[in-house]
């Protein structure tokens, strides 16, 4: 005898149907990720703002993990060049005596502006935008690099 106030009990068939629907949904989500990657869909990471206080060293070059910050002689213009080699991704070094950026892995060489000169790398080094901060008198107080 059924009690009229108790909710109906799910039968085995409806439980299995629910489980199969969940499994199909999870399988679809699992397939979606490689499909999106294959189609080239990427989520761009949020930009990072890295502040470097003035003055820069006498050489006009400041090295960070991700980039080199170069400044003109009067320090009014600045540019940032990525330190990730466009060949296979090694971290490049700046040779101050030769005024060159060189990759330690396969010796690709670049100008301080990131232009490729030689080596297996086929592309220039990427540039990052730099904002020069000045005080009220026009004196440079720092640089903000957007990575
Ligand atoms: S990784 Fe830089 S030249 Fe090969």
Task: Write a structural description.
- The structure is a single chain.
- This protein has one helix at 12-38, and strands at 49-53, 61-63, 67-71, 78-82, 93-95, 100-102, 109-110, 116-118, 127-134, 140-146.
- It has 147 residues and is α+β, with helices and mostly antiparallel strands.
- A six-stranded antiparallel sheet has the order 1-10-9-4-3-2, with no helix packed on it. A four-stranded antiparallel sheet has the order 5-6-7-8, with no helix packed on it.
- β5 and β6 form a beta hairpin.
- FE2/S2 (inorganic) cluster is lined by residues 85, 87-88, 90, 103, 105-106, 108, 119-121.
Q: What is the topological layout?
A:
Blueprint: H1 12-38, E1 49-53, E2 61-63, E3 67-71, E4 78-82, E5 93-95, E6 100-102, E7 109-110, E8 116-118, E9 127-134, E10 140-146
Bound molecules: FE2/S2 (inorganic) cluster.
The site of FE2/S2 (inorganic) cluster has 11 residues, from loops.
Summary of the model, kept short:
The chain is an alpha+beta fold and 147 residues long. The chain has one helix at 12-38, and strands at residues 49-53, 61-63, 67-71, 78-82, 93-95, 100-102, 109-110, 116-118, 127-134, 140-146.
For the largest beta-sheet, the strand count, sense and barrel status come to:
6 strands, antiparallel
Strand content range: 25-35%
- How do the SSEs run, as a string of H and E? HEEEEEEEEEE
Q: If you compute it from the alpha carbons, what radius of gyration comes out, rounded to the nearest whole angstrom?
A: 28 Å
Q: Tell how many strands the DSSP assignment holds.
A: 10
The proportion of residues forming helix, as a percent range, comes to 10-25%
Q: Give the mean pLDDT.
A: 90
């Amino acid at each position: 005898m059924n009690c009229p106030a108790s909710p109906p009990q799910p039968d085995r068939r409806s439980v299995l149907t629910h489980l199969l629907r969940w499994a199909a949904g999870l399988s679809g989500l699992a397939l979606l990720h490689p499909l999106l990657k294959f189609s080239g869909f990427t989520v761009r990471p949020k930009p990072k703002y890295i502040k470097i206080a003035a003055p820069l060293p006498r050489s006009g070059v400041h090295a960070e993990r991700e980039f080199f910050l170069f400044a003109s002689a009067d320090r009014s213009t600045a540019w940032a060049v990525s330190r990730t080699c466009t060949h296979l991704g090694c971290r490049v070094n700046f040779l101050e005596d030769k005024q060159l950026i060189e990759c330690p892995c396969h010796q690709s060489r670049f100008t301080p502006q990131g232009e490729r000169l030689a080596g297996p790398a086929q592309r220039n080094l990427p540039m990052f935008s730099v904002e020069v901060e000045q005080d009220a008198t026009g004196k440079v107080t720092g640089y903000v690099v957007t990575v």
